[in-house]
Design brief:
By secondary structure, the chain is of the alpha+beta class. Helix content is 14%, strand content 32%. The N terminus and C terminus are likely disordered.
Length: 788
Amino acid sequence: MLLLMLAAVAAVGRAQPVCSQRKVRTGKVFTSEPLARGDQLFHASTTTYVIRNFCKSNVVLYLGKKVFLSKDNFESSLPPLIIPKSMLVGVASVTSAFFASGTVLLLVVNEKIYSYNYLTNVWSKPAGISSPVSHISGDSCCFNNQFCTELSNSLFAYFRGGQLPWTPIYFSDNGGFSFQHLARERVDRFNGTLGGIFYFHSMSQVGVLEVIKDLGMFHYLEHPLNNSAGIPFEYKEPLDVIIKTGHRGFLILWSQLSLLVSPNADMYELALLTEERNLYYGSQGYLGTSLVQLSKMSLQTEDTSISFTDTGMLEILTVVADPQFPSFDFQKCVVNVQTVLMNPSFDIEECNVELLESSMINQMFTIDMNSKLDLSALMIPRPGKTPIPLVMVSNPHSLGFEAHIIEFGNTFDGNYKYKLEIELQQQHHWGIADTNFTASIKRNAISSVTVDIADKTIACVDLKPLSTLISVGCDQTKKILVQNKISACSMGILNPVELQGNYTYTIEKEAYYPINHNAGARDDLLVYYQYKDLGCPRLVYYDKPWKPVVEVWKNGILEEIMNAEYVITEVNGIVTYSYSLTAATANCRSQPQNWSTFQTNLGNVDQMSIWNRENYVSCHEDNKDNPLLWPEAEYQILGGRTDNRVIFGQRNGIYTFLLSVVDPYYSYCSLDTMFSVYVYGALPMAMFPPVLSITLLVMTALLSTWLAYAIPKELNTERGQRFKNSCSWLFQSCWGACSCDWVSGGLQRRLRSRRVSDQPSRTPSGQRDQTDRLSEASKHTGASMKDL
């Protein structure tokens, strides 16, 4: 809600000095160098303005008749800021400025944006802006994490007073190095003039200030506020909009004639210096607004600005020209508001709280999906007082909480201590908010959490509200690993020393498909094993259905065994594995995705980005655009509500898998990991089909059985005798040609003895004698039995 700050005045003090002035004059002992060539910048407004770098408190920009940039909080004399002639700015009128990430200052000069690196003293012009702009908006985040960096890099550039929706609006996601056009479709529903466009990170919203017929109104572009608007307020002249840095949702809209503020979830302090040189200090609480005149200043207001350097510490800065040197001096006056208000002449009620502290301040916490966060604060009231503590979140659409206060012992003087316990989690999981109020659980968000005293007095200047930032998004400390209790190394199958020494293994060309190719492999693939990343492979029996056990680790501590949906793929293209479930047995209600769904989009994209939580669609929900047409198709998702498993084919060896979590409701992080398995127990592949081998084996056994029966019986017949005699003659003929007589003779004797012994016992004795004589004769004459 927008409130007129000057609406209520609680007390007015007598005019009295509140600080002692001192003059900063340095570097003027020797003759200084002349000013650089170029155009001197100046502020387009008649009002002076000081902008402080939220992340680097000593870096300060002064906007007035001249522009000064100080890197030591104006503790030295400075020349005015000059933009080089090469920038071709024309009239060097500055309408807006913003401290971007790093050491970059962005300035809107003569309806164009210029970038100035104050560390290297280099000017440049960002790309992408092709039409006039008047203002640039953004917010700074100083925590060292990716989410904070993305917030700081998000900027808008626009022309205030442009007609919506046709006026060009530009955005940057890289801190102002380049800009892009904002799609007109996002502002098509507006038909007034543009008062400004801003990132309201504390609400995870983009706010558009639309002005129609002397009324201003904020509209929002993101769900769930995209169909609602803020409360209208009077807008008869252009208002400058100041976003208090730190993502607390605090706005100031002001001009020479009006001052409005939107505190969102914070109590605030505000200082005013009027043209009549009156200095005011105000504080708006939840039960009322107080404003105190601190003093009537004895200074010229034309080149004077005021700014807070810290809570309750107000700095009044005046530029002082030196006719003998090009550098300017600065008159400084620091006001300790708490000390001033303790003067009895103000007759202000003392603060009703002695202590309010917590370890949560100046930190940024992260709540991932399905996670909770517990915070606490300690409060000690002044004796005899019963202050009312308040817990507030700036973005209740994404972040919900429960708070409890308990008595927490006593101080040494017998005063009570109280502990405020706060439990936070996503609003979606509390289950008490309307679905139209709750933001999408799939969308990252940010919110501030503030602990303050609802009824604290204006004298509680030093009692800062306890405030911290909560990122509802990816927890960067969260990682996943595949459990490895039984490895090929621990079982003695592989040697870890060999694995670390450039170990290689071969993948048969029949077992893999080359990555990014549809055709089969032509040659075997030689792979170097990455022991540093994979360790020893897990041991898996080839014919046993298996799935990896996935562990979730946070800050080096095992948090849980993951049960979310995930997919795996062999990074070298091995295809000798399958899955135990089909679309039908997995109870799919629509056709499930599989790796072939994304194969056409593979190209040169990293495998880790192919199938992920952003493009995963569950088959357990009805989908008229993708009905279940092939129920026997392989179901390739593991984990979640099914017990799907991997079945390895008849191949022993190493497999290296990439595992990616695709469940969009498990974590905001893109969780993935690589692991390896060693498959064992598979017999070599048969040369012939099993059916053919079994058939041949059975026929051979039957034939052998028949021959074992038929041959002895056949040999006892006359035909069998002739066959035996023929065989004997054949052997004698072959060995008779051998030069080794002793071999030949030995074989003959053996054949003879075997032949004789094999004769049937029914042969007459006379015939046997005759046969013996014929054999003896043939021995001496060399004649064969046929000749005889």
